[in-house]
Amino acid sequence: MRVFWLITSVALIALCAYFAVLRPARAAHAGEPILIRPGDVVQLSGAPLGCRFIVPSGLRTLDCRVAGSLAGSYGTLMSPRRVQVVRFRDARVAKVVFVATQHGGFRTCR
């Protein structure tokens, strides 16, 4: 049960960070959304957190993670239909620990 709450917390932090990054930019553009293109990176001011727009296998995805050493940290991958929380084992290998579909169900992975 602790894993579920940890994963939920990480996902919520990533979403809050994503919206916190866009809030000042929206005010500067008078309410217009900021559009990013594949490969663009958005960083949170004053915190070691960033998001990158990737397109793996043609699926537009927002990849958010902490800066620095990835081993032991968590990241989120959010697409229009699915959210994944991953835990990095090292700099290149991550294990999926939580998967949810937008407006649907979820499952935890052990």
The overall number of domains is 1
Task: List unreliable stretches of 5+ residues.
Answer: none
Major sheet: order of its strands? 1-2-3-4-5-6-7
Percentage beta strand: 25-35%
Q: Which value, in Å, is the CA radius of gyration?
A: 14 Å
Series of H and E elements: HEEEEEEE
Describe the structure.
With 110 residues, the protein is of the alpha+beta class. The chain has one domain (2-108). The chain is 25% helix and 35% strand. The chain contains one helix and seven strands. It has one helix at residues 2-28, and strands at 41-43, 49-54, 61-66, 74-78, 82-88, 94-101, 106-108. It has a seven-stranded antiparallel beta sheet with strand order 1-2-3-4-5-6-7, with helices on one face. The radius of gyration is 14 Å and the shape is globular. The protein starts with a helix and ends with a strand.
Summarize it.
The protein has 110 residues and is α+β, with helices and mostly antiparallel strands. It has one helix spanning 2-28; strands at 41-43, 49-54, 61-66, 74-78, 82-88, 94-101, 106-108.
Question: What descriptors fit this protein?
Answer:
single chain; 110 residues; alpha+beta; 7-stranded antiparallel beta sheet; 7 strands
Architecture blueprint of SSEs:
Layout: H1 2-28, E1 41-43, E2 49-54, E3 61-66, E4 74-78, E5 82-88, E6 94-101, E7 106-108
Antiparallel strand pairs: 1-2, 2-3, 3-4, 4-5, 5-6, 6-7
